[in-house]
## 1
Amino acid sequence: MSQQTPTDAPARPRVLSGIQPTSDSFHFGNYLGATRQWVDLQETHQPFFFIANMHALEPGPEPKVLRERTLRSAAQLIAMGIDPERSAIFVQSQIPEHAELTWVLECLTGFGEARRMTQFKDKSAKEGEGAASVGLFTYPILQAADILLYRPAYVPVGEDQRQHLELTRDLAQRFNHRYKKTFRLPEPYILKETAKILDLQNPAIKMSKSNSSPGGIITMLDDPKVSAKKIRSAVTDSGSEIRFDPEEKPGVSNLLTIYSALSGRSVEDLVASYDGQGYGALKGDLADVVVEFVTPFRDRTLDLLDDRAELQRVLRAGAETASEVASATLADVYDRVGFVAG
Ligand code: TYM
């Protein structure tokens, strides 16, 4: 990948995003809402994608589990089509500038502003403020640092990250205004159709690692037969007509969204082709599409996991590329806030 110093205008706009290694496998929400766009954007942008292991520390996983999931995440990103020759794939904790910039941004963030961030607000509303860690409180500021260090034009994420992107832009603007224009204001890149993939058992909530029941979440590395069964047992709505109507028919609409995204067929085309048929036909066909999609993905991931040394080499190379950009940005920041050069 060609290297640019951050003060040069990059030949192609940068794109950056991250994913937490909080489970053994990504799920369909992660893939359709975010990482699939990463794969597409690497064609036209200068891509930086990282595994947010510092964010994942917040609930305190077992060290060996966190380490394993970090490598599994790297393998999955490569298996889904992130090309290490074109994209910098790296691990957040290997770039110390993420933590260093966080401190500077924390000094620009209001206490009330951080308190209003959804994750902290929800947890403290449910369990009391004392139940939340300081890490959860400052989580969005670390995320802002992750982003701003690379001065990306776009950040491809799902809808649930929009608030974090707004804080990131606010902090960038505040820094630029208080000191000197340093940060680019990043735009969220959120695809409307797949911005929020819903839980298959409870379409009132999003598919999520933390809240979905096992039947509500399709994980990418599950046994394909299990995933097919989950699709066939997805909750559908009253009536029997197949129609795209997220308000009245969230369950069926979610299945149509997944089907369309995986098959490349438009929702209208799918609706027309199931005219007069019941939910069972739609679910049966979608189950086949899912099996066809996850089977090679799973095989590729497991193959990649057989060569840990190669995965670590890819991550080291990604960290080198990331480090050049991150260190140059942090040097600008330190200079502008008045830190004496070392
Ligand atoms: P994480 O690890 O929870 O999720 C990774 C990506 O998957 C998207 N996503 C979904 N999209 C649609 N429907 C769903 N049901 C669904 N569930 C998850 C998320 O929106 C996300 O894009 N805080 C981030 C990680 C992070 C990050 C960053 C992202 C850390 N630093 C900097 C971008 C830039 C998170 O927890 O994502």
## 2
Amino acid sequence: MRDRLEELAEEGLAALGSAATEEDLRRVEQDYLGRHGRITAVLRQLGGLPPAERPAVGRLANEIKERLARELEARLEILRRSRLEAELAGEGFDPTLPGPPARAGSLHPIERVRRELEDLFRSMGYAVAGGPEVETEEHNFDALNIPPDHPAREGHDTLWIEGGDRERLCMRTHTSPVQVRALRRHGVPLRVVAPGRVFRQETQDATHDHTFHQMEGLVVDRGVGVPHMLHAMRSLLSGLFGRELQTRLRPGYFPFVEPGFELDARCPFCKSGCSVCKGSTWIELMPGGLVHPEVLRASGVDPEDYSGFAFGLGLSRIAMLRYGIDDIRWMMSGDLRFLEQFDA
Ligand code: PHE
């Protein structure tokens, strides 16, 4: 039986050597290595051998199969190469043919809303400002009239950064520190929006994530008051929803504004209560207020001369409303099944 196997190996190698096409090669493969091939046929008789001899013969058969398989691969590769060379050299290859189409990406829903709002505010004379995501304690809290022992700090579950040698550093918990940065840098009068990522140590659920997006608005000039703030907020809303929504102001508390407000809008999706407005027909959209004199002072602006308003828009939340996304965790998931739904 060993001899028969060796013979088959010789024959098989010779057959592979004389095969001229891929088809020929595949036929030899079937003939020798296939389930009904010659080597298998020999192996079927293994049972007729004395038990002591079986393992050695089995091993030999496997080794021969491998040898043939290796030779087959090598021959296939040679054929492939020469076909490619012939194509490249001859008429068969047309380098001007288009390749497979590249898949176009799409804009993330937050990115879309951000761009739209930036365009809207630019058209109203605002500049776009920014600041770092790793922020100093001074910008994120102190200059915003939130001293260390202030209870408002507890509302911001802050991710502190270890090892800032001169100043305490944190992941910014809101975009409001950009108010201070922009004022210190550019002075007054000033009109800016500042979109960006913010971070909080939150337990994730459908409406909370540790990373989300906000957009800060800030206007400081002589004689700026609540009506100016309302106008800016309302323009923003009609820009977003394509029509005027009825709004209402409630008092709201933030240490860096005085007075402070919460702006609600009539639910854009229903008349009598739905799951988005939780049956109330109002949705809480945006906090804001007049910039606190202490914040102006800390930013190098004289509050006797100048006043301003600020608002903070939750970009993540707006994008969710806009596109009917019911779980904020999709936003940062990077899941293509989610992202592909926003193809242009
Ligand atoms: N920074 C506040 C927050 O993240 C929102 C805010 C911005 C409130 C501007 C008032 C004015 O909770």
## 3
Amino acid sequence: MSLRHDYTRADVQALFDLPFNDLLARAHAVHAAHHDPNAVQVSTLLSIKTGGCPEDCAYCPQAARYHTGVEAQKLMPIDAVLDKAKQAKAAGATRFCMGAAWRSPKDRDVEKVAAMIHAVKALGMETCATLGMLTQDQADRFKTAGLDYYNHNLDTAPEFYGEIIHTREFQDRLDTLDCVRNAGLKTCCGGIVGMGETRAQRAGLLQTLANLPEHPQSVPINRLVQVEGTPLAGTALLDPFEFVRTIAVARILMPASMVRLSAGRAEMSDELQALCFFAGANSIFHGEKLLTTGNPDVGHDRALFARLGLVAMPAGLETGTVHADIVADCREHIAA
Ligand code: SAM
Ligand code: DTB
Ligand code: SF4
């Protein structure tokens, strides 16, 4: 099945505008044709360097300029990071994502993070990092250290970006994504909805993601977590069905990618999450914390998986494999 990279804005908007049932039926058909619809990839996040960020992203509690109560902390020592990775693995996560509140890593930080990546990889986990903008040399260094994925979100439509972030350009994000792909890393790239953008702008975000030179292997769809003290606190809440539509359209545009039901799950009902899984979400963050904000309790997620008959996807089966292999491999692992 060929993947498209030539979507027009009208193509994407037409999907958003479908009747809800038609959109969900189409998205679920695409989902079931490319993935095991009952298998969900599970990652755990750790903030390895928290707060004090010089950027001004209007959604982010870690920007130094907003008074959000997030206490700035230095880069964690490697042993503490490894302890957290071991706990995440024991709790069932197959991928460990390390996040830092940086505009871009300083040279002195690169070797420290490379050592963390190497050590987490040695535990037998997939590795992911999100550290801000990278140069080609930095991306290459992380690849050599054993990094599997680099998370770098486009966050919103190109035409809305300047209303949300003033300290960098949309093009900066695209440039880092080029370096990440050139290094041979997999990309984890998505965005945030519920920031006051229009439906056309949500379509613009997904259109840009799908028209990248490669579809990101992982597409996190975050629902804005409103944090007091950030400029976006108090933004009108997005209609939950519009959030489900966003997941469904992402699934249809990027059929082979993993679509992550990312930030915002703690504020979602079980029913809303179930609709998102039906619409094509097949990846989550597991563990009581995202970076600085809350995530559902581990026990609650386990119970939700059991109620919905969902199973955690074994590592390495998520991307780049054709449908039949994915389904067969998942079934085999699940049966084992
Ligand atoms: N500083 C790096 C960067 O911005 O690329 C990496 C860390 S940053 C916290 C990673 C992502 O977290 C952002 O791109 C954004 O999508 C997400 N994020 C931050 N604050 C959020 C919020 N309040 N609600 C939802 N997602 C958020
Ligand atoms: C992504 O798309 N979402 C995650 C991860 N990538 C790094 C981060 C969500 C952060 C939510 C706000 C917080 O906890 O600080
Ligand atoms: Fe800094 Fe990333 Fe937060 Fe923006 S999203 S303020 S770059 S930590």
